[in-house]
Structure formats: C-alpha cells, structure tokens
Design goal:
The protein is built from 15 helices and seven strands. It is α/β, with parallel strands linked by helices. The chain starts with a helix and ends with a helix. The mean pLDDT is about 90.
C-alpha cells in the first residue's frame, strides 16, 4: 500500500512541476501583454475578454471531466497575479504636457499608491507632508494637479490652507466623504475640481476591477484624461453626485462599520476565547469574524471620521438601534411567527439578489475554509 501511494504521489509531484512550468510561461506572456498595453494605452482590465476566456475554459474543462468551478477558481487567482504583474510594465502617459503632480499627504498609504501609479504612468510626482508646509508655495506654484490625500477630519482644513494654485491646475481629493470636501475645493480654487473616492484599501496591490467613484466639481473637460488614465490602470469608474455619494456611503460605510465596531466591542467585553470561537466556527462565521478583526487592525481615527462624518450618519445609526430593539422585543415575547413574518418581508425586499448573493458567497466560503489551519 505504501509503495503504491508513493508511486502515485510521485506522479502527482511531476504533474505539479509541469503546472509550475506552465504558470511561469503564462506569467512571461502576461509580461509581454503588459508591454503592449503600456505602449498603446490599453487598460489592464478588459471585462469582455475576461468573461469570454472564462466561459471558454469552463466549457473545455467540462469536456475533459474537470469541474468548471475548479478551473475558474484557478484562473481567477492566476489573473489576479497577472494584473499585479502588468503594473510593473508601466502605463501610457495620456497627458504628457501635464506639469508636476503634488500629492498632499503623499506619505500616507493611499497617497503612496497614487504616487506609484502616476509615476508608472510617466508623470513627475512631488510629495507635500506636514513638515513640508513651509515649502508649500514652492511645491505647488507650478503644479499641474494637486491631490489631497489626508485623514477625513483634516481634509477641509488642508484644502483651505492651500496657497493660490495655478488657474489651470486640477484640484482633486480622495476622501471617503465627498460633499463637504468638494465644496471646500470649489471655494478654495477657481480652476478644475474633481472629487474621487477609491472604493478599496491601499493594500489592494492592483487597481484592476476596483471601483473609483468620481464626483463632478468644475471644468470636467480639463480632467477627463485623468479619469481615462485611471481606467487604463484597470479601475472601473462610477459617476455620482457628491450628495448621493454621501447618502449611499452612510449605509455602505458608516452603518456597516458601526455595526462591526459594536460587535467587536461586545466580543471584547464578554472576553470570549477567540481560539475556541475559531476552532468551532463554520466557514461563514470564520469569514465574518475575519472581517471584524480586519477593522480593528486598522486606524481607529479613520473609522471614527467615517462614522461621525455627519448628523445624518448618526441619525441612521439611531434608527438601526431602534430596529435592533424591535427585533429583540420579538425574542423577548417569544413571538416566533412575528420573527418569521419579518424574515420573509426582508427576503421579499432582497428579491432575486438573495439567491444571487447566496451563490456568490459560496466561493468566499470555500476560500475561508481552504485557509483554515
């Protein structure tokens, strides 16, 4: 039995080595693709090409008796690595006449990411940190674009502190809230103004498939090239008004982060044994716990800023608290039918999204289980 297993495992090892060689060759081809895209200004991420390729590979896998989901999982992981590799080849410069870009707060993680992407795209980038303010006039006097990338609670004050910028300079901010910073930029600068919100963390590695929200400020024709440059980096753009952005972010960020904060606070106050929770957890609970832990691994000031950004956020959290109390009342009253009725009402509100989300979550749960040690 041992000899038979050893022989089979040796064959598997040889197949794995062949797979490694093929992956190495694929990455070499990806590097060549990156060079071509860089030369012609093509975007890193082309959704039509990816969808077509995955559909073809799934069909071919099925003919060979290989589970289609398996090949899709493998290819998606390979493509994620490929998108990161394409970054190394640089990007076409869409506005070669642009004067230097100054990133205020460029030493922060998001500022560093934009500095890297702009540098890879052939632009001259300067950094203005807190200790550089005595030289702000020098760093900004000939700027073609100024990007403000500082903590939310400092954004408006930093914008107001900027010296007079060249009339054609593009003023941009990257804050997670948009209306107040946008108004501050419009008041501080008479030239082109653009509000951006990168909907991802600076540790993403690649902008491929990431969403960047943009809000019109002033003179969109002056910064259209920059939006196209971001698309070349692989990101998907979503246009929305600053007011609508903040209304939606109240649910996407403020409420969600508060609920996560409250759950983490409760776990800590109950002093539960995390090791036992993990040992007993299902994949979905492990994933949920990981997301809670992710929040507490980051900067508390950021989340305080997001949650407390407006009175509207606090009012939304208050309504959530009251509905939480109503849900508790169902339990205290032992009213199982009322619970079921409420459950079905929410299920009806989700509509077709409920089974869709259930399907999408299966891949996440498999990954959570795969990482279990």
């Amino acid at each position: 039995m041992v000899a038979e297993l050893t022989a089979l495992r040796d064959q598997i090892d040889e197949v794995d080595k062949s797979l490694l060689a093929l992956l190495a060759r694929r990455l070499e081809l990806v590097a060549e693709v990156g060079e071509v895209k860089s030369r012609y200004g093509l975007p890193v991420y082309v959704p039509e090409r990816e969808a077509s390729m995955l559909a073809s590979r799934r069909a071919e896998a099925e003919k060979l008796g290989v589970p289609p989901d398996l090949i899709e999982d493998v290819l998606r992981r390979v493509m994620r690595e490929s998108y990161s590799s394409e970054n190394d080849k640089g990007f076409k410069t869409l506005c070669p006449t642009l004067r230097p870009v100054t990133i205020v707060g460029g030493g922060g993680q998001m500022g560093q990411l934009f500095a890297k992407m702009l540098t890879l795209s052939g632009y001259q980038v300067r950094i203005l940190e807190q200790e550089d303010w005595p030289r702000a006039g020098e760093l900004l006097q000939d700027a073609g674009m100024v990007i403000v990338s500082v903590p939310i609670h400092l954004t408006e004050a930093v914008i107001a502190r900027l010296p007079v910028l060249p009339r054609d300079c593009i003023l941009v901010d990257l804050a997670s809230v948009k209306n107040a910073p946008l108004q501050a930029m419009l008041a501080a600068h008479s030239g082109p103004v653009l509000g951006l919100h990168p909907m991802f963390g600076p540790d993403s590695g690649s902008l491929a498939k990431q969403v960047v929200v943009w809000c019109d400020g002033r003179q969109p024709e002056a910064y259209q090239w920059f939006l196209e440059q971001i698309q070349i980096w692989g990101a998907r753009l979503h246009r929305i008004s600053a007011v609508e952005h903040d209304q939606n972010m109240a649910f996407i960020q403020a409420l969600r982060h508060f609920a996560t904060f409250a759950y983490g606070l409760h776990l800590a106050e109950e002093n539960v044994d995390l090791e036992q929770l993990l040992a007993l957890s299902s994949p979905i609970y492990r994933l949920e716990l990981a997301m809670v832990g992710r929040l507490f691994a980051q900067d508390p000031q950021l989340y305080a800023d997001i949650i407390m950004a407006s009175q509207e956020n606090l009012a939304l959290v208050g309504r959530y608290y009251r509905r939480f109390g109503e849900a508790i009342a169902l339990l205290e009253n032992g009213d199982k039918q009322a619970f079921i009725d409420s459950f079905n009402r929410v299920k009806h509100w989700f509509g077709d999204y409920a089974p869709r989300f259930q399907s999408e979550s299966r891949a996440l749960l498999r990954q959570a289980n795969d990482s279990r040690k």
